[in-house]
Amino acid sequence: MKLQQLKYIIAIAECGSITAAAKKLLVSQPSLSKCVSEMEEEMGITIFNRNNRGVYLSEQGSKFLAYSRQVVEQADLLESEFKHKEKSKRVFAISAQHYAFVVNAFVDLVKEYGREKYEFSLRETLTYSIIEDVKNYRSELGVLFLSNFNRQVILRILESEGLSFSSLFVAKPHVFVSRDNPLAKQKSVTLDDLKAYPRLTYEQGINNSFYFSEELHSTETSLKNIIVTDRATIFNLMIGLNGYTISSGILNENLNGSNIVAIPLISSEEMEIGYISPQDRPLNDISKSYIKHLQYNITHPVP
Questions:
Q1: Rounded to an integer, what distance in angstroms lies between the CA atom of residue 252 and that of residue 297?
Q2: 27-45 pLDDT tens trace
Q3: Domain span(s) for CATH 3.40.190.10 in the chain
Q4: DSSP letter (8 states) at residue 207
Q5: In terms of Cα–Cα distance, which of 40, 17, 41 is closest to 29?
Q6: pLDDT at 256
Q7: CATH number for the domain whose boundaries are 90-163+275-299
Q8: How far is 38 from 119, CA to CA, in rounded Å?
Q9: Measuring CA to CA, which residue among 18, 132, 160 is closest to residue 66?
Q10: Using CA of residue 251, residue 256, residue 261, residue 265, what is the dihedral sign?
Q11: Within 13 A of 118's CA, how many CA atoms are on the CB side?
Q12: Does the pTM of the predicted model rise above 0.90?
């Protein structure tokens, strides 16, 4: 198995066709077909199934592709770190649910490493994707929450994927609403109080299990539901439609604006927010530094 072969497999999967991949790579089609055959024979698996439109990944091929991407990305990191004599750029990635303190900590980290060259990634993404990113080393860390409802399921998945969960803090649930929402005048709200308003939740894609929801009480019935993909949209809908979402209660006026308020939700649930990381390797220095920034932003939220 050679690194170039893995790069060919990735290109074929992305193009969905050996012919298209050959044109993209400026390699002959027979060479690519031979590469696939040799790799399938060496691994003892079928990587691609064929149809009239080209090729598509088999179930085994999908798993093989994930590992191939990991190997290629790690090889690229090795080259950027050691191949050239000049000082290489820093590389760091974090995948997280949609929390303001995650962004604040990321900003602080970038400022701390304010050098001429660096490459940092912040992915606010689906819960399932956070786990996949950390498992496949696309991200050093992932940030998500556990509750009484999802704890056993999420921890079982993390264990099966070789990941560990480290707690950052435990928060009582709050409801985020517009300052003009009638609920904003109350000292606390109940689930019954929320029934008249649109419930705003984050999209979880094809892995749309209640256990992967970013919001507590995801199984509660709601007649008005709006699903969004980014934090800016969810806050705009709170203002425009008097919608609400359930979260930790930590707000940042610089990121969320002054029109959003957090109201305690009367609930027996809690949100234990923490970070996930691989069990088989220690945290590097930049990950440790990011965690310190996380802890600071959690205990010193910007009003």
A1: 10
A2: 898 988 999 899 889 999 9
A3: 90-163+275-299, 171-271
A4: G
A5: 17
A6: 60
A7: 3.40.190.10
A8: 35
A9: 132
A10: negative
A11: 14
A12: no
